[in-house]
Amino acid sequence: MRMYDIILKKRNGESLSKEEISYFVREYTEGSIPDYQASALLMAIYFQKMNKEETVYLTEAMMKSGEIINLSSINGIKVDKHSTGGVGDKTTIALGPIVAACGVPVAKMSGRGLGHTGGTIDKLEAIPGFSVEMSQATFINNVNRIKLAVAGQTGNLVPADKNLYALRDVTATVDNISLIASSIMSKKLASGADAILLDVKTGDGAFMKEIDESFLLAKEMVDIGNNMNKDTIAVVTDMNQPLGYAIGNSLEVKEAIRLLKGEGPEDLKALCHFLGAYMLLLANKVNTESEGIQMVQQVIESGKAFEMLIKFIEQQGGDTAYVEDLSSLPQAEEILILKSEKKGYIHKIQADTVGLSALILGAGRDTKDSDIDLSVGIVLNKKVGDYVETDDILAYIHCNDIKKGEVSINQLREAYTIEENPLNVRPLIFGVVDKNGIRKLY
To answer: Boundaries of each Pyrimidine nucleoside phosphorylase C-terminal domain copy (predicted)?
Structure first.
């Protein structure tokens, strides 16, 4: 088999066989295929697309390029949840304890963030002592003991994706639904869960900007999961403004903990209720969406979800005193204020601009080796649809460097659009995609 022939075949718009795709993934991962040939194939795929069979073949080959986690010794149906990423997305920190408190095992493997804020692991490490470093045996035992554990991804999980994504990033071939879907699903499938819930973000702060494109990506990933015998459901949700009010690691942890105490912003609460319900459906704990939402509400109101968080933090070495007293978590030295320069209704808070403003403060990583400042970030005071007067506070900027804070606040000002007329706010949840197809809710 020659790489030249595979490139030519895809360039001419033909479908690649399972053997051809497996050959490419295996040989490129092992270093036998040079970057220039891999780039040529990626560009051919970008323009000629892949059909559903090719996408499944690519996902499977990538999944098998490294270690596949075996979680069969964990009791019950393991449901994994993945978000395609957004600004202020601290959902997992709240959702893990909620679902575990409902009796569903949550065995979560997460990575570190690269972008405007840290990933789930970075955020949790704002709690002193908390660690994700553990053996696979300890990870499994922890889930069997309390139904919840979060560990760092093993270095040998889907190495093909690490290599191919780096190449796609520098060859302008990231934005292809088959390549995106196979990248995400290969990691989820290799992580060992029995069922997968996908939170597919759409809007300014998401990878997929357009709603229709987001549904196409969701459908592609759901089809991959179900074709590989994993019950998979996707929910398409809004990321045209940040989720909740807090953007920044420690700030987001505080907001997630407040939700588990029955407080927290309404959009984050609604999203956790909805996603939690579908995780319970996938685990066969409930029969309907409404039953799932009711069960989620019950474990929050009874305090069981917060109790689960305490057990989880304690089990992974964290000091639970910091969870009980949120003021003891990392805090920035200075708080700057962004005020409205006009009165009217907030029509837009451009999520990606807010994310960049947080990155300027040090809340995220420019490169994988960048250090994160866990204490800095942004707390919104108003959301899209709110009415503001001139000089009303729009946001608080938490910083440890005044110069960075001033640059951030100037950037953040550009995120807001304020108009005289009220507007219809976009829905938080656009629809659900499962094995039966697409169900739009708007």
So the answer is: 345-419
Q: Is 26 a catalytic residue?
A: no
Burial string for 189-208 (b: 16+ CB within 10 Å, else e) reads: bbbbbbbbbbbbbbbbbbbb
Residue-wise DSSP of 340-390: -SS-EEEEEE-HHHHHHHHHHHTSS-SSTTPPP-TT-EEEES--TT-EE-T
Q: In this structure, which topology does domain 331-419 adopt according to CATH?
A: Aldehyde Oxidoreductase; domain 3 (3.90.1170)
- Whole-number Å distance between alpha carbons of 169 and 172: 6
Active site residue 439: no
Structure tokens at 304: 């069981």
254 is catalytic: no
Is 168 an active-site residue?
yes
pTM of the predicted model, to two decimals?
0.93
CATH code given to domain 3-63? 1.20.970.10
pLDDT on residue 37:
97
Instruction: Tell me if residue 112 is catalytic.
Output: no
Average pLDDT over residues 100-117: 82
The residue annotated as part of the active site, out of 122, 161, 238, 352, is 161
CATH of domain 79-324+429-440: 3.40.1030.10
Of 22, 178, 183, 408, catalytic:
183
What single-letter amino acid sits at 199? D
CA distance 96 to 138: 18
pLDDT of residue 85: 83
SS3 content of the chain, % helix, strand, coil (to 5): 45, 15, 40
Q: For the chain, give every domain's residue range.
A: 3-63, 79-324+429-440, 331-419
Q: What is the DSSP string of 54-92?
A: HHHHHHHHHHTTS-----TTSSS--EEEEE---TT--HH
- Of the listed ranges 131-140, 298-307, 416-425, the least confidently predicted one is 131-140
Catalytic residue among 108, 168, 258, 382: 168
pLDDT digits (tens, 9 = 90+) for 29-41: 999 999 999 999 9
How far apart (Å, rounded) are the C-alpha atoms in residues 335 and 348?
23
